[in-house]
Amino acid sequence: MLTITACTTTETGACPSCDEEASHVHSYYQRHPQDLPISGRRVQLILQVQRFRCKNLSCPRQTFAERLPELPLSVRQTRRLGAILTAMGQYSKVIESY
């Protein structure tokens, strides 16, 4: 198994509710998305992500997690793995229709 540990280096994040820029880091947490194998070896991703505190006092969201472009917040797999799984699903539907 290949373990890849990474942390983000952004200093600010935009609140998804009010779009206010925030620089105060509230906390950190880890995400463990699934990814495709590399050179035949299973990959374990460990990503340390920041939670920011929104500065806008009228915003209903007090804290928010920074966004990672290749990893939507609610998904547990990378986009490249998702694309392969979607393609495999479409391919299997084509085979089933014959």
Write the layout of secondary structure elements.
Elements: E1 2-7, E2 13-14, E3 21-22, E4 25-31, E5 43-53, E6 63-65, H1 79-96
Parallel strand pairs: 1-5
Antiparallel strand pairs: 2-3, 4-5, 5-6
Structure overview:
It is a single chain. The longest helix has 18 residues. This protein has one helix and six strands, in the order E-E-E-E-E-E-H. The protein has about 100 residues and is of the alpha+beta class. The radius of gyration is 18 Å and the shape is elongated. Helix content is about 20%, strand content about 30%.
Q: Assign the structural class, choosing from mainly alpha, mainly beta, alpha/beta, alpha+beta, or little secondary structure.
A: alpha+beta
Name the shape in a single word. Answer: elongated
End-to-end C-alpha gap: 38 Å
- Give the integer mean of the pLDDT values: 82
Please outline the major beta sheet. 4 strands, mixed
Number of helices: 1
Radius of gyration: 18 Å
Per DSSP E runs of 2 or more residues, the count of β-strands stands at 6
Which strand-content bin applies to the residues?
Answer: 25-35%
The ordered H/E elements are EEEEEEH
Helix content: 10-25%
Question: Are there runs of 5+ residues with pLDDT below 50, and where?
Answer: none
